[in-house]
Structures are given as structure tokens and as C-alpha cells.
Amino acid sequence: MLMRTDPFRELDRLAQQVFGANGTTARPATMPMDAYRIGNEYVVQFDLPGVAPDSIDLDVERNVLTVRAERDPDYGDGAEVQVAERPRGVFSRQLFLGDTLEADNVDAHYDAGVLTLRIPLAERAKPRKITVNAGSEAKQINA
């Protein structure tokens, strides 16, 4: 109901880890996430430590939510890098939102390296009671 992730993303990530990027040892540019439902909304959390809030870009197009963020190196001028293990560059992830979610009402909050999205359920997807008419109030449906 919530979403499905892009299966090719995981294949690309695995290939990058095994074969490396540009003939070097690859460091996967991951954007780990958790997704869960609380009441009438879904919550999706992405780990983006060290990412500046103004580098985060969220887009929704045809029920596809794209999260894009960039982490630049923060070395000082003239620094000789000895070890560089932290992933840098552009991170991107797409989520395919179900039709039962209000893609136009996504709320985003970034705090302590975690991007939290709250996506409400559409009214048509919320549980509701249906009145059962009996006796003379019953209506006949012609097929």
C-alpha cells in the first residue's frame, strides 16, 4: 500500500560494491531508510548524516517521490587527505507511492542527520463504516 522501491537500485549498488566504480574500490552511496505506518499516515526516515539541509531536494511526479541530497567534502584548503571512507557526492532514492496516499501533502523535516517524511493516507483509503439498510429501506439494484 505504501510504496515499493526500485529493484534495479539494489542491483546497481551490489554491482558497484563487487566491481568497483571506475576501476577503484567502490564506496556505496547509500541512503538507508525505514518506513512504517502510524494511524492514518506513513512515516519514512532516511539517514543523511553530514548533509546540509539546503542540499536536500524532494520531488513528487506521478506518485513517484524522489529524494536527492548531496554531501560535499569539507576539507580545508591545501588538506592532504589520508583516509576518505565517508561517502560523498549525490545520493538519490525513488519511492513509488500507492494511489491511497496523499502525495500532494508530504511533510518533510530534517534533524540530526535524519530526513523524516510524513505521508498521509487519502480519505478514500481510510477505514469507514457502511450503513446497512434493512426492510422497507432496502433498495433494489437492477443489473
Any overview of this molecule?
There is one protein chain. This protein has one helix spanning 7-19, and strands at 3-5, 33-38, 41-47, 57-61, 64-71, 89-97, 107-111, 114-120. It is built from one helix and eight strands. It is mainly β. The strands form two sheets. It has a four-stranded antiparallel sheet, with no helix packed on it. The protein has a four-stranded antiparallel sheet with strand order 2-3-8-7, with no helix packed on it. It has a single domain (3-73, 80-125), classed as Sandwich (Immunoglobulin-like). Belongs to the small heat shock protein (HSP20) family. This is HSP20 family protein. It comes from Labedaea rhizosphaerae. Residues 24-135 form the SHSP domain.
Sketch the major β-sheet. 4 strands, antiparallel
Structural class: mainly beta
Second CATH tier, the architecture = Sandwich
CATH topology: Immunoglobulin-like
What descriptive keywords fit this protein?
mainly beta, 8 strands, elongated, 4-stranded antiparallel β-sheet, single chain, 1 helix, 143 residues, A-crystallin/Hsp20_dom, HSP20-like_chaperone
SSE layout:
Blueprint (H helix, E strand, L loop, with lengths): L2 E3 L1 H13 L13 E6 L2 E7 L9 E5 L2 E8 L17 E9 L9 E5 L2 E7 L23
Antiparallel strand pairs: 1-6, 2-3, 3-8, 4-5, 5-6, 7-8
In short:
With 143 residues, this protein is mainly beta.
